[in-house]
UniProtKB/TrEMBL annotation:
Summary of subunit composition and partner proteins: Component of the Mediator complex.
GO biological process, one term: regulation of transcription by RNA polymerase II
Protein task: Component of the Mediator complex, a coactivator involved in the regulated transcription of nearly all RNA polymerase II-dependent genes. Mediator functions as a bridge to convey information from gene-specific regulatory proteins to the basal RNA polymerase II transcription machinery. Mediator is recruited to promoters by direct interactions with regulatory proteins and serves as a scaffold for the assembly of a functional preinitiation complex with RNA polymerase II and the general transcription factors.
Keywords: Activator, Nucleus, Transcription, Transcription regulation
Places the protein is found: Nucleus
Gene Ontology MF, one: transcription coactivator activity
Gene source species: Nothoprocta pentlandii
Similarity field: Belongs to the Mediator complex subunit 20 family.
One term under GO cellular component: mediator complex
Pfam families: Med20
Protein name from the UniProt record: Mediator of RNA polymerase II transcription subunit 20
Primary location group: nucleus
InterPro entries tied to this protein: Mediator_Med20
Length: 156
């Protein structure tokens, strides 16, 4: 009788032995890769929404101290967008190098470079973690899902 909360199970090729579970408006759980098997065993408590599978696949580039990943975001068989992930490897506190990241992204993205990610608002001077990256991917995927929803036409 309770309304369900969404939980997104995500994987990242940079962390092949980990599985990330992001709860709707909540924490990010980092577990080992067998978390998927546990979720199958708990299928009486969770409903799987396979139709909502979304992923980003692409190429990883390294330029000096920068790591750049460019991927095509797909939902089912069709492409829905492009994801660009940029990391400045020597820095572990993202706020400390945000201006440098922006300058680097503007050099190849121009005016399409993004603003400050929302995850920075809660992290101020904290160490950036893989969970923070997954939260940003989840925000991107949700934005793409919302853009794909077709409004229902009214009857005249």
């Amino acid at each position: 009788g309770q309304t369900g909360k969404l939980m997104y199970v995500m994987h990242n090729s940079e962390y092949p032995l980990s599985c990330f579970a992001l709860f709707e408006n909540g924490p990010c759980l980092i577990a080992d890769a067998n978390f998927d098997v546990l979720m199958v065993k708990l299928k009486g408590f969770f409903q799987n929404a396979k139709a909502n599978k979304i992923e980003s696949r692409g190429t990883r580039y390294q330029y000096c101290d920068f790591l750049v990943k460019v991927g095509t975001v797909t939902m089912g068989p069709s492409a829905r967008g492009i994801a660009v992930e940029v990391e400045y490897c020597p820095c572990v506190v993202a706020n400390d190098c945000w201006n440098l990241l922006m300058e680097f992204m503007q050099s190849f993205m121009g005016s399409h470079a993004p603003g400050v990610p929302s995850v920075f608002g809660t992290k101020h001077d904290s160490i950036y973690s893989p969970a923070d990256t997954m939260v940003q991917y989840m925000e991107l995927f949700n934005k793409i899902r919302k853009q794909q929803q077709v409004p229902v036409a009214g009857i005249r």
